Amino acid sequence: MAFVKSVACSCLSLILACGSPVPRTLLLSNVELLDGSGGPARTGSLRVAGDTIVAIGDLTRQPSDSVVDGGGLTLAPGFIDTHSHADRGFDRHPDALAAVSQGITTIVGGQDGDSPYPLGPFLDSLARRPAAVNVAMYVGHATIRTLLLGKDYRRTATATELDSMKKLLRHELGAGALGLSTGLEYEEAHSASREEVLALAQVAADSGGRYISHVRSEDRGFWPAIDELLEIGRVTGMPVQLSHAKIAMRRIWGQADRLLAKLDSARARGTRVTLDVYPYLYWQSTLRVLFPEGNYGDVKEARFALDQVSPADGLLLGRFEPDSSYAGKTVAQIAALRHQDPALTLVALIKESEGKAESVIGTSMIEPDLVKLLAWPYGNICTDGELDGRHPRGYGTFSRVLGRYVREQHVVPLAEMIRKMSALAAENVGIQRRGRLEPGWYADLVLFDPATVIDHATPQDPHALSTGIARTWVNGIEVYHDGLTTGARPGQVLRRSTTAPPPLRPSAHL
Ligand SMILES: [Zn+2]
C-alpha cells in the first residue's frame, strides 16, 4: 500500500552566504524502512533537507534531489549509545570510526560518575570543533566529589561538603547535562552514603534532569545496589537508568528473571526505571574494582573474587604500565610465569600498579542472563566503549547485537531491536527528536544489511570493523561509507532543554 509522510520543506532550504536559497535535498531510495517505532519494515524512500528528514514513503525524484540508491538494504534511525566513553577520545579521534562504523550517531558521555570539569567549556569547545557524532553528557558524581574531597574520598562527605557538592552539581547541570551519573562501585564514590547520593540525585531531579548509575555492586552487593537505584527513582520521581546491566557473580548467575521482575514491579508502582546493556560476557575495568572495599592486600578477598567474580583465566590484562609484557596475558598465565598462586598474583599485581595505569577485561557473566537483559522491553543497547579501547565493545556492540542476537539467536525481532537501539534509547536518556524516521526529526541514519551484519572485534583485535554496516549519516551528512569515515564532522552538542521542543524547525538543542 502506498504511503507518504512529509513536511513542507521550503522552510528548510539552506541559505548560502550569497543569500539565495538553494534547496539541497538527499533522496535515499530503494530501502527497507525501519522507523524506530518497532513496527514492520516498509519499502520506500526517505528525503532529507539540511539536517532534517522531510518526507518518507513512496517518493518520486525531484530536481533538487541527489539520489542514493539503497540497493534494498535497511534504513534505520542512527543508533544512540546511552553509555559511552567516547567523550574521552574526540581530541584523538574526531571522526569516531569506532562509533559510526557500527551505526552509532549519538553518544552519551559523562558516565560512571566521571565527567569533564567544568562541563560548559567542554561542550562549548565541542560545539566549535564538532566530532562526527552528536554528543550529550551527564555530570559525574565522582568528578564533583573529588573536587571537594580530593584523595580523601574513602569516607562520607560532611554536611558542608555536601552543600558545596549540591551547588557544584547545580552549576554543572546548567551547562545542559542530561542529569547525574554515578559509579558507586568505584573507589572515589563507593564510600558515599546513600543519603549523599540521594540528596544529589534530588538536585538533578529538581533541575528537570535524570539519573544514570553504574550501581554500587554488580556482584557481592547486587540486590541492595538495585534497591538503592529504585529508591532514588521512587523518592525523586525522575527517570533512573541502570547502566550496563549485568549479573556478574557466579553465585547470582541465572537471576536475570528475578532482576527484571523486580524492575517490572517497580515500574508498575510508578518508578521510571530503565536499563542499558552490552552484548558481551566480559567487562573492562581495573583490577582494583575486584576489591570494592579497598582491601587490596587481602588474599582471602582475592580468592573470593577469583572464585565468584572472575576466574584467573578470565582476567585478561589490557594494559599494565609496570610491566607492559603482561598486557595480553591473563592473571592465570602471569601466575604461572611467576610460579605463584593466582590469588597472591592478583594482590601483587595491584600493589605493583599503585599509581600506575592498568586495565583488565574480566569474564563474569553468562549468556542466558545476557539474552534476557537484551530482550527486556525497557532496556536499550549501549557500548560502554571507548574510541580506541581494549574491549571489543567499542567497535562491535551494535553489529554484534544485530548479527549474533537478532539474526542468529532470534532474541527479539529486528524491528524491535532497532527500536531499542534508537527511539527507546533516546527516550531512556531524554534526547528529543532523534531515534525515529519521522518528518521533522533529525536525519541521523544508518543503512545496513540485516542478512550479513556482524561484529569482528575481539579482545585480541579490538578495533576490527564490523561488516554489514554500509553507510551512516549524522544530521543529514554522510560520515561513514563502506569501511571509511568521510572526514565530515557534523555532530551537534545536545543540551538538555527545560522547554518542550518546537513542533518543527528544530534547533541544535534537545
Ligand atoms: Zn560502568
Could you walk me through the main structural features you see in this protein, from its secondary elements to its overall organization?
There is one protein chain. The radius of gyration is 23 Å and the shape is globular. The chain is of the alpha/beta class and 510 residues long. The protein has helices at 97-100, 119-128, 141-149, 159-173, 187-190, 194-206, 222-236, 256-268, 299-309, 331-337, 342-352, 367-375, 393-408, 414-421, 423-429, and strands at 4-6, 14-15, 21-22, 25-33, 42-49, 52-57, 65-69, 74-77, 79-81, 104-109, 134-137, 139-140, 179-183, 210-214, 240-242, 273-277, 282-285, 315-320, 358-363, 379-381, 445-448, 469-474, 477-481, 484-485. The strands form 5 sheets. Strands 1, 4, 5, 6, 7, 8, 21, 22, 23 and 24 form a 10-stranded mixed beta sheet that branches. A 6-stranded parallel beta sheet has the order 12-13-14-15-16-20, with helices on both faces. A 3-stranded parallel beta sheet has the order 9-10-11, covered by helices on one side. Helix 9 (299-309) packs across helix 11 and helix 10 (331-337) packs across helix 11. Mean pLDDT is 94; it is low at 9-20 and 499-510. 30% of the residues lie in helices and 21% in strands. The longest helix is centred in the C-terminal third of the chain and has 16 residues, at 393-408. The protein is built from 15 helices and 24 strands. Strand 15, helix 8 and strand 16 (273-277) form a beta-alpha-beta unit. Bound molecules: zinc ion.
